[in-house]
Write a sequence for this structure.
Protein backbone atom coordinates (compact mmCIF):
# COMPACT_ATOMS: atom_id res chain seq x y z
CA UNK A 1 0.00 0.00 0.00
CA UNK A 2 1.49 3.29 -1.09
CA UNK A 3 0.39 6.31 0.91
CA UNK A 4 1.98 8.60 -1.69
CA UNK A 5 3.06 7.85 -5.23
CA UNK A 6 6.73 6.84 -5.48
CA UNK A 7 9.09 9.41 -6.93
CA UNK A 8 9.59 8.81 -10.62
CA UNK A 9 13.35 9.17 -11.12
CA UNK A 10 13.29 7.18 -14.36
CA UNK A 11 14.23 8.72 -17.66
CA UNK A 12 13.80 7.33 -21.17
CA UNK A 13 17.42 6.15 -20.94
CA UNK A 14 17.58 5.00 -17.30
CA UNK A 15 15.08 2.99 -15.25
CA UNK A 16 14.39 3.51 -11.57
CA UNK A 17 13.58 0.84 -8.99
CA UNK A 18 12.81 0.47 -5.31
CA UNK A 19 15.73 -0.64 -3.13
CA UNK A 20 15.03 -3.67 -0.93
CA UNK A 21 16.91 -4.12 2.35
CA UNK A 22 16.91 -7.92 1.94
CA UNK A 23 18.69 -7.73 -1.44
CA UNK A 24 22.00 -7.52 0.36
CA UNK A 25 25.06 -8.31 -1.75
CA UNK A 26 27.25 -7.81 1.33
CA UNK A 27 25.70 -10.87 3.01
CA UNK A 28 28.65 -13.27 3.30
CA UNK A 29 26.32 -16.25 2.84
CA UNK A 30 25.22 -14.95 -0.56
CA UNK A 31 28.57 -13.64 -1.81
CA UNK A 32 29.84 -16.98 -3.18
CA UNK A 33 26.70 -17.26 -5.31
CA UNK A 34 26.76 -13.63 -6.38
CA UNK A 35 30.45 -13.99 -7.31
CA UNK A 36 29.56 -16.75 -9.82
CA UNK A 37 27.60 -14.19 -11.82
CA UNK A 38 29.07 -10.80 -10.86
CA UNK A 39 32.75 -9.89 -11.16
CA UNK A 40 32.54 -6.34 -9.86
CA UNK A 41 32.55 -5.04 -6.29
CA UNK A 42 29.68 -6.34 -4.17
CA UNK A 43 28.81 -2.73 -3.28
CA UNK A 44 27.91 -2.09 -6.92
CA UNK A 45 25.14 -4.71 -7.02
CA UNK A 46 21.90 -2.77 -6.94
CA UNK A 47 19.58 -3.97 -4.15
CA UNK A 48 16.57 -3.84 -6.46
CA UNK A 49 14.06 -6.16 -8.00
CA UNK A 50 11.64 -5.87 -10.88
CA UNK A 51 8.85 -4.46 -8.74
CA UNK A 52 8.30 -1.68 -8.32
CA UNK A 53 10.42 -0.57 -11.22
CA UNK A 54 9.72 2.26 -13.61
CA UNK A 55 11.03 1.95 -17.15
CA UNK A 56 9.89 2.30 -20.70
CA UNK A 57 8.07 -0.56 -22.36
CA UNK A 58 10.95 -0.85 -24.84
CA UNK A 59 13.45 -1.29 -21.96
CA UNK A 60 11.28 -3.96 -20.37
CA UNK A 61 10.92 -5.80 -23.67
CA UNK A 62 14.70 -5.67 -24.13
CA UNK A 63 15.67 -7.06 -20.70
CA UNK A 64 12.86 -9.57 -20.14
CA UNK A 65 14.27 -12.47 -22.24
CA UNK A 66 17.71 -12.32 -20.55
CA UNK A 67 16.16 -11.85 -17.09
CA UNK A 68 13.77 -14.78 -17.63
CA UNK A 69 16.47 -17.09 -19.02
CA UNK A 70 18.98 -16.21 -16.32
CA UNK A 71 16.45 -16.69 -13.51
CA UNK A 72 15.39 -20.07 -14.91
CA UNK A 73 19.01 -21.14 -15.35
CA UNK A 74 19.80 -20.31 -11.71
CA UNK A 75 16.63 -22.09 -10.55
CA UNK A 76 17.31 -25.20 -12.63
CA UNK A 77 21.11 -25.45 -12.72
CA UNK A 78 22.40 -23.83 -9.52
CA UNK A 79 21.11 -25.57 -6.38
CA UNK A 80 23.00 -23.10 -4.17
CA UNK A 81 21.32 -20.10 -5.81
CA UNK A 82 17.95 -21.85 -5.74
CA UNK A 83 18.30 -22.63 -2.04
CA UNK A 84 19.89 -19.41 -0.78
CA UNK A 85 18.16 -16.87 -3.01
CA UNK A 86 14.87 -18.68 -2.39
CA UNK A 87 11.70 -16.69 -3.01
CA UNK A 88 13.71 -13.71 -4.28
CA UNK A 89 15.67 -15.67 -6.91
CA UNK A 90 13.97 -13.86 -9.79
CA UNK A 91 14.84 -10.54 -8.13
CA UNK A 92 18.49 -11.59 -8.09
CA UNK A 93 18.05 -12.66 -11.72
CA UNK A 94 16.88 -9.14 -12.50
CA UNK A 95 19.63 -7.32 -10.63
CA UNK A 96 22.57 -9.55 -11.59
Amino acid sequence: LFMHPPANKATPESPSAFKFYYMNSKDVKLQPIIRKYWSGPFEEVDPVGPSPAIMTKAMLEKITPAWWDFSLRMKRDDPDANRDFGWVLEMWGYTL
In short: The beta strands are 16-19, 48-54. The chain has a mean pLDDT of 93. The helical segments are 31-37, 57-77, 79-85, 89-95.
